[in-house]
Amino acid sequence: MAKKNSSETEDRKDDHIRIIQEKDVETTGTGFEDVQLVHEALPEFHHDDIDLSVDFLGSELAAPIVIESMTGGHPNTTKINRALAAGAAETGIAMGVGSQRAGLELDDEDLLESYTVVRDAAPDAFIYGNIGAAQLREYETAMVERAVEMIDADALAVHLNFLQEAVQPEGDINAEGCLAAIERVSSELSVPIVVKETGNGIAGGTAKSLTQAGVDAIDVAGKGGTTWSGIEAYRAAAVNASRQERVGTLFRSWGVPTAVSTLECAREHDCVIASGGVRTGLDIAKAIALGAQAGGLAKPFLKPATQGVDAVVERVEDLIAELQTAMFVTGSQNVAELQNADYVLLGDTREYVTQRRD
């Protein structure tokens, strides 16, 4: 198996974090603005009796919140992952690491620590690993197990990022055989498999194929948050790759809106994580009402992670307070009741759903 130059791999990871922090990498259009939860004026329970806990892939989370996969693979990211993991442990939520390809293919102890630090900082938290679908096709199951062992992972995410790869100057654009690889690993790996997009959403037909392949959860990562096409356009511009820059900019807002993707995936699978432009506890509440089991956020945790564990915990507690309020005023005493809360679908999202062809 061909290995990439270590400096290229590490520099790309560092580029991503720097661009996210410094550039405009946000898109709009999650569809959550078109989801209105119906107000319950008489909840008939005490606010303090709201139960946020949820069963998630065989473990119990204190709240239906996931710190989405962000980073790892560069020594500069070790501090970030340590803070995220410790914050997840303190608040009882889940956390994923970024792609572990660098940790598997490059012999570098400092780089490896950027991943292993998460379990050191959070021995009891729900932590999941991360491998790209294109790499999954190349790896034997034993190699994938190494990613699990690296961080003593409770699950493994397989990310789908083919738009990003198509824009990336050094991208891997071979998508052949990935579904078969996902099915193979889903049946052979020691931990549950979560298949996740990276900002462009998963449509119902794909969700059906993934469900039939045996995946344990689907993370929609829909349109409306961080645009990896846009990030790669910035990287392409920096190396004068004008064609990739133009393509990345053109497809900056491409994808299935998060609200629509959540609806479609929830029809096909009973464990859906809604991410992609999720920014508040109210967004999480809307996603759960649409059928999700949890809501995931990435970029909103990046700045707090650079500030330390306390800032990460404060961000989680803000989300919890917002989610609790939404549950209180929809008469939802627990997450199961929130999944059955009344809502109205309006505007462009309603039009999208209505006009969507199976």
From TrEMBL:
Compartments (UniProt record): Cytoplasm
A single BP term in Gene Ontology: isoprenoid biosynthetic process
Organism annotation: Haloferax mediterranei (strain ATCC 33500 / DSM 1411 / JCM 8866 / NBRC 14739 / NCIMB 2177 / R-4) (Halobacterium mediterranei)
Any single Pfam family the record assigns to this protein: FMN_dh
Keywords: Cytoplasm, Flavoprotein, FMN, Isomerase, Isoprene biosynthesis, Magnesium, Metal-binding, NADP, Plasmid
GO cellular component: cytoplasm
Domain of life the protein comes from: Archaea
Ranges of residues in domain FMN-dependent dehydrogenase: 174-341
Protein family according to the UniProt entry: Belongs to the IPP isomerase type 2 family.
Predominant cellular place of this UniProt entry's protein: cytoplasm
Protein's name according to its UniProt entry: Isopentenyl-diphosphate delta-isomerase
